[in-house]
Structures are given as structure tokens and as C-alpha cells.
Amino acid sequence: MLLSTIAQHLGLEFAGEDLEITGVNTLEAALETELSFLANPKYASKLAETKAGAVVCTADQAENVQRALISENPYFDFARCVAIFAKPQGEMKGISELAFIDPTATIADDVTVYPHAFIGPRATIGSGTVIFPGCYIGEDSTIGADCILYPNAVLMAETTVGDDCIIHAGVVLGGDGFGFAPTEHGVQKIPQIGTVTIGNDVEIGANTTIDRAVLGSTSVGDATKIDNLVMLGHNVEMGSNCLIVSQVGISGSTKIGNGVVMAGQAGIAGHLNIGDGATVGPKTGVGKDIPAGVTMAGMPAMEKGIFMRHTTLSPKIPDLFKRVKQLEKEIEALKK
Amino acid sequence: MLLSTIAQHLGLEFAGEDLEITGVNTLEAALETELSFLANPKYASKLAETKAGAVVCTADQAENVQRALISENPYFDFARCVAIFAKPQGEMKGISELAFIDPTATIADDVTVYPHAFIGPRATIGSGTVIFPGCYIGEDSTIGADCILYPNAVLMAETTVGDDCIIHAGVVLGGDGFGFAPTEHGVQKIPQIGTVTIGNDVEIGANTTIDRAVLGSTSVGDATKIDNLVMLGHNVEMGSNCLIVSQVGISGSTKIGNGVVMAGQAGIAGHLNIGDGATVGPKTGVGKDIPAGVTMAGMPAMEKGIFMRHTTLSPKIPDLFKRVKQLEKEIEALKK
Amino acid sequence: MLLSTIAQHLGLEFAGEDLEITGVNTLEAALETELSFLANPKYASKLAETKAGAVVCTADQAENVQRALISENPYFDFARCVAIFAKPQGEMKGISELAFIDPTATIADDVTVYPHAFIGPRATIGSGTVIFPGCYIGEDSTIGADCILYPNAVLMAETTVGDDCIIHAGVVLGGDGFGFAPTEHGVQKIPQIGTVTIGNDVEIGANTTIDRAVLGSTSVGDATKIDNLVMLGHNVEMGSNCLIVSQVGISGSTKIGNGVVMAGQAGIAGHLNIGDGATVGPKTGVGKDIPAGVTMAGMPAMEKGIFMRHTTLSPKIPDLFKRVKQLEKEIEALKK
């Protein structure tokens, strides 16, 4: 594809001679016919050495490269360039005869169902959606339009997924929440009769699990992105535009606002409120509500400023014990 | 179903006029024909506002509601009410022709096997058990009566599961333990020739993995409940009536007593003994044995009382450094 | 199998009368016809009580047992003995008619493909490899010779796996990395068009996920062993001979050297360099580069020596606050 065509397609100006672009790559690895990008000015020195045929960059960097696609947000516009060259996973079209589809299911036009998928009674699959092999769509589940369910994703009964969602391999939506009533003779299972509701434009990473509610619904808002191996307990209510990184765990009934970011391996206790725009650092253990906009880190969670000082001081604690011991000696001497 | 019928079914008294009950719900969301519950007196003020047609509660709360199902353990009895209205997942019956069942397998009466399940040589499946799509039951495995194996659950060869167990989607039982012998030229895999043995009435959450033993058996006792994404290493021996919350990891050969509770994301080192009734807090890192009945928390694990003080004091440590510095100055001044 | 045959097979000497060996076991559990081992001299006292018919041990222990297989590395040689008695999982041979194999795929001789597996366009499967039920091999993926892919393992498109690899049940290789460009109107997905490349003799534990690169390749070197429920982010480059224990998470673009060991639930931030032979303790949170050969532990990570002192002192911190308060009082008194 010609650089000029890409520029036109994205509504960007380009500087330099036109060129046939064969792909996208990093500044280090790009070939002479590939397109690269400079998002962080810190790496501007790499422009001198790159072989890239063209670079997506801000206007002030355009003269440092052979050809530029000029952008106010180079990282975003590079993402759009990558999308041009990206190939979707899988090559089948239509409904495989090796899939099991219950006769009461409603399958829109232009749906792809791979071999060995299972679509249960009264399930509804929206137009353009692709269901890879080994997926299980339980009875009365609803999936919107233009979704992708990668291999072996599982939606238990009555799960709802909006439009334009990506559900990665091995995801489990709507398994039973972990709910038991204590009795004198051990615990009694509380049947989990609620559901899971996923908004539009949500992405859920490989092997992540989101449990069905005990009553009502566990929910994830529009445009929220969840990484691999995350756990959302029953009745969690998560807002829109959140970013939840790998291996995070959120306990039951916690409410997460909009635009919340949680870094890897963070854990959130149950029945909490996490305010809009809050940020939770990696490995942080949250046991209390977080107000909107606040950043917490550490175990137990502290405001980030305190945590940073804590981090600096932690390795000095052994020395602090020595200093206190020394002080005690000196006071003893002084008292004498 | 009439309230009177529910009361009779559960052996409870009811107060107020009879009513056709259509479902169960929270006090906030219940409709006028739904049944709700009050388990924690802290929420008693909600009784004034609920629309619920009837409430499971203790005798002293009965006069505050329109209709009451009187219970000494309202949470437990509400769980039993939910069970009345709960619908099992899946609607198939019998053995699907799209499943693969080895001719040497023994399948009891009244077993359901969904399409695309695989049951290997000499496997045994007990009466009333349901095997969802994509499950793999390896050779010489034994599953008891009235179990449910949700989609894509995997039991590698020679795994044993008792009666009345629930194995959620994506669970892997009997994968190889992580065992290697160091040599001069890198590590050598130690074949894992042991098994996994699961008791009766055990529940195992989605995408949890329990490794087979190197020799002997990794085991989980009766009525133990394990949440999602938990990892049990080879030769772990877990007792009965334990509650293991999501994302816990237990390293090889550790012995867990009966009635042990582990909160989310806790980690237990290998070759330890965790006593009966011990409790491990969230995100706790356990490196030593825990005596029976003791509660540990923190990383590294401490007795809970110390951890709680630690939690309160942690954010004040930066200030403590300042105080010690000030003391050092003052002592220096005094010495002069 | 005769003890003499085993000795000959492994190139070891044996002491004592010959015996028909029926299996391998621990010193405690071994029967009179079973082989056991003593690797750690700490447990030498168990030799007096074992019923084992023969023991793999060092020359100096040989006179304490009825029959000995004499070894300079008993743990390693016992692993080799176990391998003699180990039975591979699964009993099928050849290509099942219930598998889906794209006509453009290249399947070498002596490959086994189980029912309900899916092999996509232009995939290549090397000689002797076994693909269990429910596996998904995406288009243009390449798997070497003598690999095992256990049930429901997923290789998304263009994944490369070397020879002699073991991919356990539920593993997902090549799911999209977690990459989004922030914009004024929420985040924009960055298509992940790179791949995953796994070396030779690699083992990957159940339900582990390794994401495809945004550009280039996420890679794992030869003979590296990865446990269950581990997460490797996009563009991670891991060296050879590493041991990565369960539930570890490694963020995007981090480079891991050769011979690195990471204990359970450790977490590594993105864009870091972890040097050859470094060790990361359990639950450790790594936010900075680690030089070659260094051992880090704790959250935040510290050198192990400091962490150990920290661990000892942590429970004494509440007391330290009291001591400082006392000092402050005494100084105040002295000043007066």
C-alpha cells in the first residue's frame, strides 16, 4: 500500500516522496519499506539509525526522517496504521457442520461458528460475530454483533455480551460465584442464580474468569479492557473505560467506577467502592474504599506518595533498628 | 410456589398471610412476590423499605415485615430457598452421539455426556453425573455419582473424583507437577507418576489447576470448596471442609488440615504443615508451619494481631525515620 | 524389570542380589519390590525403616540398604528410574476422523491427533507429536517433533513451538497482548501482529498464558520450564534453562536472561532486564533491573540479605515505635 494511500486513509499529511509500504515495525527492526513510529521524544536519537521507510511522528520530528506521517498523537495513529496491516485470526466463514447448534438458538446473518463449538437452547448470536472451536454458549445467552470468541471460551447460561467484544481463549463467564453459608455441619452452597452482563467494546484476556452473581448481575461496562488470568467475583460491578491488568483479583460485590486502572496482581477485597479514575498499583492489596482519582499502592494499600517513601525506606529498616539501639545506649549513658 | 409450601418444605414456621412466591432477591431489588432475607442485624433498617413479599429472618425481626419465614440461621435457610428456585445449567439428557466415549469406559445409568466431550479407556462415570462439552476424562479416571463437570474441564489419567462434586469450566486436574532434578547440563524432568484424588462434595472453581503427585497422590478432602484460578502443587494434601479463595497458590507437598480458610491471592510455600482451623489472610505469604486455629496475615506472614498493628503503623514509618533523626540530633546536642 | 537390567540401562553399578522391580516409590511407601531413593543425607535415618527392595543412593550409603543402585546424583538417577516406569498419558495412535484438520496443514508421519482437535490452514506438525482433544492450532503455526499438547491447549495463528515441548492442558499461546493507545475518547486497541516463539525442550504448565507480541515476537528459550497459571506479557523475551514457578506474572517487553529462577506469585514490571542466573523470591515485586546472579525478594524487591533481616524485624516494628516514643520522653526529661 502506498504511503500516500495510508495518509489519505488516516487523514494525515505526509512529508517526503511516496513509497510502497509493506508492513509496520519498531524503529530498530523496520526494513526500508516498513513504517515505524516515534511516540516518546526520549527515543528521538533512534531516528538517526532507523532504516524505516517512513515514520509516524510529530511535525517537529518530520525533518529528522526520510518520510514522515505527521501526527499529533503518533502512538494512536501508529495503532491505526497497524490495524491496516493486521490480519484477523482464523480464515473460516459460515456455520460449520461440525459445530453443535441447538435448533432454538437464533444465529444472525454473517455469523461464523467453527467446528466443535456448542451453542445452547435459545442463545442469540449477533451479526458478524465469530465463534471459534471449543466455545460453549449456554442456554439463554446473548452475544451482540461483531464479537470474537476465541477458542474454548465459555459463557454459562444467561450470560449477556454486548457488541464489538473480544473474548480471548479459555475465558469463563458465568461460572458460579463462591458463596457458602456456614452451618454447624460445614458450609452449605448458596446457588448462584444471577447472571453476567458485559457491555460493548469490552476485551477480556485469556483464561480470565468472571463469576455469575448470586442474585442480580455481575457487570462490566463499555470499553473496559481486562487482561489475562484476572478474577472478578460474583456481583462485582465494574464501570466503563477501565484497564485491569493481568492476574488482578476483585472480590464479590465490589463496585468499581469508570476509568479505573489496576496494575498486575492487585487484589481488592469485597463490598468496597473504588471511585472513578482511581489507580491501583501492582501487587497492591486494597482493603478499604478508594475515593475518585486517588492512586494507591502497597500491601496494605497506602496513598502512592507514602508508598514511594515507604519503598525507599524499607531497605533501611534494619539500620533503623541499629540506630534506635544506639540511641538507647547513649541515653542510658547520659542518664548516668 | 406458595410461601406455606416453602415453609413446609424447609421445616420452618411462617408468619403472615400465604402468598404465591415467584422468586428470590435482595431486600433492595425484591418484588412484591419475591422472597428475601435478613442475615445481618446491621441491615435491619432495610426492612422498612423493602417491597419483598416475605423475608427469611429471626423470630425477633418477624414483626417488622409483612410476612416472615422464621429461621435461626437466616443466611443458611435463604440458601435453601434459593435452591428451590435455582435451575441447573444445561438442558440435555443422555449420551450425545457427538461425544467420544472409549468402548472400555463404564458409564452408569442416568449419566449425561454432551457433544465434544472425550471419555478415555477404562474411565468410570457414576450415576447422575453430567459431563459438559469439551471435557476430557483421561484413561482410568473415576468420577462418582451426581457430579457436574462444566465445559472444558480436564481430568488427566487416573484422576479420582468422589460423589456430588462440582468441577467448573476450564479446571485441570492431574497435569504434571513441576518437578525437575538439577544436573550439570540443566534440569531433568522427573516424570510425575502419581495421581489426584478428590473427595465427596468438593467444588473446584473455573480454571483452577491441581497437579498430579510425583509419587502417591495429591488430595483434597470432603466438602472442601476451592475458588477460581487456584493452584495446588504436586503432593499437596488438603483436608476436608476447607475454603480456598481465588488465586491462592499452594506449593508442593504441603499438608493442609481440616477447616482451613485461605483468603484470595495467599501463597503457601512447599513442605509445610497448616493446622486444622488455621486462617490465612488475603495476599499472605506463608513460609513456615501454622499451628491449628491460628490466623496469619501479611508478607511475610505474621500473627494477625501483629499484622494489624503493622498495617496501622506502616504508613507512619517515614515519619519514624524523621523522629529517629531528630533524636540523634538532640542526643548529639546533649552530649555536647 | 530386573534391578540388573535397570542398572545396565542407566549405566550404574548395583550392590546386592538381583530382584524383579515392580515400581518406584518414596522410602516411606515403597513395597519390597519397589525402588526408592535417598537424595538428601538428612533423611538417611529413613533407610533403617524402609521396606524398599532397592535404593538409589551414593556409594557411602550403599551398605545401609539391602540393595543399592549407586549414583553420584541420586535425585537425577531416580528421575531416570521413574522415567522407566512412567506411562505416557493417552493411548490413541494416528489421526482421529473426529478431528478437524485443514487440508493445507502439513502433518508429519507418526503424529497423533485426538478427536475434537482443530488444526488450521498451513499449520505444520512435526513427527511424533501428540495433539490431545480440544486443542486449537491456528493458521501458519509450526510445532516441532515429539511434542505433547494436552487437552484444550490453544496456539493462536503463527505460533512456533520447537521440538520435545510439553504444553499442558488449557495453555494459551499467542492471545493478543494488552496494548492500548490512550486518546481523548478512551483507549484505542493496538492490533497485536507479532507472534510467539517457543524453543526446544520447553514445558509450559496448565492454564498458563503467553501473549503474542505487538510487533516481533514474544519468546521463550530452550529447556525453560514454566509452571501453571503463569502470565507472560507481549514481547517478553525469556532465555533458556529458566524455571518459572506458578502464578508468576511478567509484564510486557521485559527481557529475562538464561538460568533465571522465579518463585511462585512473583511479579515483574515491564521493560526491565533480569540478568542471567538471577533469582526472584516468592511473591516478590520487581520494579527495577536485576543484575546477573543476584537474588531479590520482598515487595518492593530488595537484595535477599536485606529482605531476610527485614523479615525478622517486621514483626518487631510495632515495638520499635514504642521504643522511639520512650526515647523521646527520656530526651525531653534529660533536656529539662
Please give a handful of descriptors for the protein shown.
336 residues, alpha/beta, Udp-n-acetylmuramoylalanyl-d-glutamate--2,6- Diaminopimelate Ligase, Chain: A, domain 1, UDP N-Acetylglucosamine Acyltransferase, domain 1, 2 domains, 11-stranded mixed sheet, 15% helix, EC 2.3.1.191 (chains A, B, C), UDP-3-O-acylglucosamine N-acyltransferase (chains A, B, C)
Molecular structure report:
- Chains A, B, C: One of its GO terms (biological process) is lipid A biosynthetic process.
- Chains A, B, C: The active site is at residue 234.
- Chains A, B, C: Homotrimer.
- Chains A, B, C: This is UDP-3-O-acylglucosamine N-acyltransferase.
- The structure is a homotrimer of 336-residue chains.
- The first copy, chain A, has 336 residues and is an alpha/beta fold.
- Chain A folds into two domains: 3-85, MurE/MurF, N-terminal domain (Udp-n-acetylmuramoylalanyl-d-glutamate--2,6- Diaminopimelate Ligase, Chain: A, domain 1, 3-Layer(aba) Sandwich), CATH 3.40.1390.10; 100-308, 3 Solenoid (UDP N-Acetylglucosamine Acyltransferase, domain 1).
- Chain A is 15% helix and 27% strand.
- Chain A is flat.
- Chains in contact: A-B, A-C, B-C.
- Chains A and B meet through strand 19, strand 20, helix 3 and helix 4 of A and helix 2 and helix 4 of B.
Per DSSP E runs of 2 or more residues, the count of β-strands of chain A stands at 37
Beta-strand residue percentage of chain A: 25-35%
Q: Tell me roughly what share of residues is in helical segments of chain A.
A: 10-25%
- Return Rg of chain A in Å: 26 Å
Q: Which whole number gives the mean pLDDT of chain A?
A: 96
Distance between the termini of chain A: 88 Å
CATH level 3 topology of the largest domain in chain A: UDP N-Acetylglucosamine Acyltransferase, domain 1
Largest interface: A-B, 65 and 67 residues
Question: Please, how many domains of chain A?
Answer: 2
Strand order of the largest sheet of chain A: 8-11-14-17-22-25-28-31-34-36-37
State the CATH architecture of the largest domain in chain A: 3 Solenoid
Total count of helical runs of at least 4 residues of chain A: 4
Q: Which shape of chain A, going by the Cα principal axes?
A: flat
